[in-house]
Amino acid sequence: MGIADFALATPSGKLSINDVSRESGHSVEKLEQILPSGKFSVLAEGETSWGLGRDAAARLLARNPVPLDEIGLVLYAGSSEWGTPFWSPAAKIALELGIAHAHCFEVSNFCNAGMVAVKMADDQVRAGTHNYALVIIADRLSQLVEYGTGYIELFNFADGAAAVLVSADAKYEVLGAAHHTDPQWVDSYYGEIKEGQIKVERGEKLEGLGEAFIDNFTTLTRKVLADIGRGVADVAYFLVTHGNQDTHRKYLDAMGVDASRSVFQYEFDGHLGGADPLLALEELERAGRIVPGDLVIVATAGSGFTWGVTAVRRT
Q1: Which of 40, 43, 258, 275 could form a disulfide with 270 if both were Cys (CB 3.0 to 4.6 A apart)?
Q2: pLDDT of 234-273, one tens digit each?
Q3: Would you list the DSSP string of 18-68?
Q4: 264 in helix, strand or coil?
Q5: For position 264, what pLDDT does the model report?
Q6: How far is 285 from 310, CA to CA, in rounded Å?
């Protein structure tokens, strides 16, 4: 049981570090620390995050032609800002793909939502409730940032989507997962409506959030590995949400893991939300670096703040 296949989609728009510098007033040299890619993916005019998710799902189903009436679950995972209020992107995607007999709903847990949804889908397939489940992971993060506000830590927010097919015939077996929310950080970031658009604001800055990332990632990783009877040495790769490169490296250091056992794509694009780990997994496949039996740890985190660790095995 687990991930049968997955596909990704990025928008046609790009924003450059020079564009962000002009709008924010920060120097290019300073921004290079946040945006080593020099440019990142953003929705172009007429593009939507749910549309990217639909396109990724369409490609996924084209190469995995499962009976559409056997897809019993369609989950849309992200940060709850779908672009259209009081509306279901999961149902819209199901409609456009011709999936007529599924339960469609949204999973909101920010950049942790994707792996939460994969685990939920896997649980239902594993229980025999559905033969197939479709998870769409998509966000419009770049659209939520005001570059003039000074919240430079958000400037790497980009747009992208992924689609995951979950079934009994899995390429990646889901072995276990653990998630934890520490609510003391809930007001660190929040949305406000400004001139008809939702933008991210920052609340009172509390000390210790960086340390909380490492503590929660390491604690949850050890828990998941203990639950499945494995150790750190058994893990082939550690894939991490690409929100902050320093946090990524500190987590690996805390686990005693060399950077060669991870994937760094900060120079390729910005932070694509919950799609980050799947982009990294795609890179491992493309490079031929992953083989049957490899154990992969996926560490994700989202505002709120919630941390999650999922263990999958290449079958």
Answers
A1: 40
A2: 999 999 999 999 999 999 999 999 999 999 999 999 999 9
A3: HHHHHHH---HHHHTTT-TTSEEEEPPTT--HHHHHHHHHHHHHHHS---G
A4: coil
A5: 97
A6: 18
